[in-house]
Amino acid sequence: MGLLAGFVFAALRYGFAAIPWLALRVQVKPWAAGLALIVAAMYLGLSGGSIATERAFIMVAVVLVAVMLNRRAFSLRAVALAALIVLFLRPEALMGPGFQMSFAATTALIAVFAMMRDYNLPPGPRWVKPVAAVFISSFVAGIATAPIAAAHFNRFAHYGLIANLASVPLMGSVVMPAAVLAVCLLPLGLDWIGLWIMGLGLDWILAVAHWTAGLDGARGTVITPGPVVLPMLVLGALFIVLWQGRARLLGAVPALIAMLLGTQAERPDVLIADTGGLVGVMTPEGRALSAPRGGGFVAMTWLENDGDKAEQIVAAARWPEVAALGGVTIRNIRGKKAAAELSDCAKTEFLVFNNPPPEGLDCTVIGPASLRETGAMALYDGAEGLKVITARDVTGARLWNSWEVRRDRAGPRGAQ
């Protein structure tokens, strides 16, 4: 969105300026900005209007309207206004990684380039400035978004800067101009010329992406941080950016504390899926899963939150002969036949079924009926014994999951 609007704005402005009669009588800059805004709105409609595209359009609209009003386009006030508009339209976007990463990158870029302007820090000779601008933009945006991406997706790219340096200039100088050319040639039936050029640029970008992704150690993983880590880190960074004077350095304190807390993240010793068909036990080699297949999304989520790159089949190979935690043996009984054949168990056993379990067992039994009431479960081995946290404990009772009412209507279900 930004590249398209920027290219159209620059092309129209230089095009109008090349017409002496028009340039001497009309301020072409606001007109170019207005027409670029119309083109951006058309692109928004063609794209389907996703949340990410709406957010980008609002950012572009704020900048172009500022140009039309002869105001400074790139400032933290513009970012704040765009954020307020986005949150007014979609308040739920605040918790999404798209909103957080987009505005983190934009805020960091404006703050860094404003500092370079205020302290008169030129990136070098004139011929170096374009390369330096791409390098600084990629580096700053990568640093600003890396903690957010790591917190949400449990991974970060080691070679993202290299990939950006090799692809971003081509996106702005070849792909976007070719896309505009294709639209302009569409009425003449010659849009294939622009699309062919555009395809060459996209092929190069995809090749760069595949090459960097295939390098050894291209992807790093992290454990899901605690709920206070990311807010504390963001607040510290915002204090550094927004405050004036040397006191802004105090924002580094909560940021460093957040990074320290992130390294101390704790993961459950045992995880039980809400269907009872998958159990994950933490071992020295990583999370061991009770089944090599089934519950793939759940398994992927568990392993990602552990910061584990292993596939489900690899994690299933880690399953020990006897999975024990806090003096309790954990077993996952999968299938109707296995449940029907089970007639006895020890009191120290913890059995998880994905089908109705037999009655009269002396051990602790977790079955589909109880899991429907509690949701997924997490077990922690502490000094006071096993600590159990259920999904219902975290979400609480809501109108759409009023399991207590359903349980009262259905009557007692026992230990299942």
How is this structure best summarized?
The protein is of the alpha+beta class and 416 residues long. It has three domains: 2-221, no CATH class; 229-263, no CATH class; 270-410, no CATH class.
Number of strands: 11
What is the radius of gyration computed over CA atoms, rounded to a whole number of angstroms? Answer: 28 Å
Structural class: alpha+beta
**Oligomer description:** single chain
Shape: elongated
Cα-to-Cα separation, first versus last residue: 54 Å
Order of helices and strands: HHHHHHHEHHEHHEEEHHEEHEEHEEHH
Overall structural domain count? 3
Structure, described:
This protein is of the alpha+beta class and 416 residues long. It has three domains: 2-221, no CATH class; 229-263, no CATH class; 270-410, no CATH class. The protein is 56% helix and 11% strand. It has 17 helices and eleven strands. It has helices at residues 2-17, 20-23, 28-47, 51-68, 76-89, 97-118, 129-153, 160-185, 191-213, 229-242, 252-263, 296-305, 312-316, 336-341, 368-374, 391-395, 403-410, and strands at residues 155-157, 219-221, 270-272, 279-283, 286-289, 323-325, 328-333, 349-353, 364-366, 377-382, 385-390. The strands form three sheets. The protein has a five-stranded antiparallel β-sheet. Strands 6-7-8-9 form a four-stranded mixed β-sheet. Helix 14 (336-341) links the parallel strand 7 and strand 8 (349-353). Helix 3 packs antiparallel against helix 4 and helix 7 crosses helix 8. The chain is elongated, with a radius of gyration of 28 Å. It starts with a helix and ends in a 6-residue tail after the last helix.
